[in-house]
Specification:
Layout: H1 2-6, H2 8-18, E1 21-23, H3 32-51, H4 61-71, H5 75-102, H6 111-133, H7 140-148, H8 158-166, H9 173-204, E2 218-220, H10 221-224, H11 226-245, H12 276-284, H13 288-308, H14 320-340, H15 346-389
Antiparallel strand pairs: 1-2
Subcellular location: Mitochondrion inner membrane
Binding site for heme b b562: 82, 183
Protein name: Cytochrome b
């Protein structure tokens, strides 16, 4: 033990993994941060192995994936582990972010933790999109065209950015090469951001679910919570194994099992499930520029949450109205995801527009207003209690 405490790298690991002070009443909802790191490591490893067999050319990309699955030993498991790992990564990160919103985890002094988390989500979205296109299935070329064309709404330099993304006058081989290069690079950017995210978290410690002082009610992480994280990991591995070995295509789309054909476009283009709520927002706004602005406002609102919230009460159990509206917000996101997977009809467009209005009403109006109201009532109660004691 003396050796561990005196040696530099081992001392750092001991401080951050073993003796790190942790609130003694953490729930299993706090497991998803460590699970996200484990899934990211899995994605990097499987991605590197896949890159050894993938060919970044529009005429060969699909065939290289077929070759990997049919001819390379364990290639099918490798490919499905990477594809379903992306879905698990988003599930874990979405739950992790929603838990942060629920417990106001980004409030002062943890603003850096929250902001880096939102930046990680943004880089994840970019990484997943360009990786989703790489197999070059039937619907992937049209999806790449639609999404990259959104760059034209950028004032002055929009068309220049689009031409750089395409590498020509349309989505073609240069586009695929650019996507392949970026998809290989971004996971290492995510790893660096994750390290910064953990460092920012450990500077002030995890939030307490009850909102009490975490400095006087903490226990060492390694001794008390490693088993909780291990249980969460075992459940995640079980779900992962079920997806890879029994339902490998459950979260995919059958159109992408067909090679891309520039002369054939699927009747109903649908992105991966974790993009559907973005897609539903874009689809519900008729103007392309306003749709991009709406997505930008969504991320800006997420980044601004620590500055919009001034509540002094950490636990939502003592903020009943906030808790109810939070679950309404989660239900709205789930409904937007469902709408994004449906065909474009008058009913689905109207429903998407209603859900989009509810989403922005929560992020821009309800969340900051309730925070101010709860803080006002809380401070008033403290003043009344102090005056009563005097």
């Amino acid at each position: 033990m003396r050796f561990i405490h005196k040696t530099g790298p081992l001392k750092v690991l001991n401080n951050h993994l073993n003796v790190y002070p942790t609130p003694m009443n953490l729930s299993y909802a706090y497991n998803f941060g460590s699970l996200a790191g484990i899934v990211l490591a899995s994605q990097i490893i499987t991605g590197i192995l896949l890159a050894m067999h993938y060919v970044g050319h529009v005429d060969l990309a699909f065939n290289s994936v077929v070759h990997l699955m049919n001819d390379v030993p364990s290639g099918m498991i490798l490919r499905y582990a990477h594809a379903n790992g992306a879905s698990l990564f988003f599930i874990v990160v979405y739950i992790h972010i929603l838990r942060g919103v629920y417990y106001s985890s980004g409030n002062q002094p943890r603003e850096a933790v929250w902001i880096t988390g939102v930046v990680i989500l943004l880089v994840m979205v970019l990484t997943a999109f360009i990786g989703y296109v790489l197999p070059w299935g039937l619907s992937l070329g049209p999806i790449a065209t639609v999404i990259t064309s959104l760059a034209t709404v950028i004032p002055v330099v929009g068309k220049t950015v689009l031409s750089y993304l395409w590498g020509g006058f349309s989505v073609d081989n240069p586009t695929l090469n650019r996507f392949y290069s970026l998809h290989y690079t971004f996971p290492f950017v995510l790893a660096g951001l994750s390290i910064f995210h953990i460092a920012a978290l450990h500077q002030y410690g995890s939030t307490n679910p009850l909102g009490v002082n975490t400095q006087t009610s903490t226990v060492p992480f390694g001794m008390y919570f490693a088993s909780k994280d291990l249980l969460g990991l075992l459940i995640l591995l079980f779900v992962f194994a079920c997806l890879v070995f029994f339902y490998p295509e459950m979260l995919g789309h059958p159109d992408n099992l067909i090679p891309a054909n520039p002369y054939s476009t699927p009747q109903h283009i649908v992105p991966e499930w974790y993009f559907l709520w973005f897609y539903a927002i874009l689809r519900s706004i008729p103007n392309k520029a306003m749709g991009v602005v709406a997505i930008a406002i969504t991320f800006a609102s997420l980044i601004a949450m620590p500055f919009l919230s001034c509540t002094h009460i950490g636990s939502p159990k003592f903020r009943v109205l906030s808790e109810r509206l939070f679950f309404l917000f989660v239900a709205d996101l789930a409904l937007l995801t469902w709408v994004g997977a449906q065909e474009i009809l008058d009913a689905t467009i109207i429903l998407g527009q209603v859900c989009t209005v509810i989403l922005f009403a929560y992020l821009v109006i309800a969340y900051p207003f309730l925070s101010w109201l709860e803080s006002y009532l809380y401070l008033n109660n403290i003043k009344m209690a102090n005056s009563g004691n005097q």
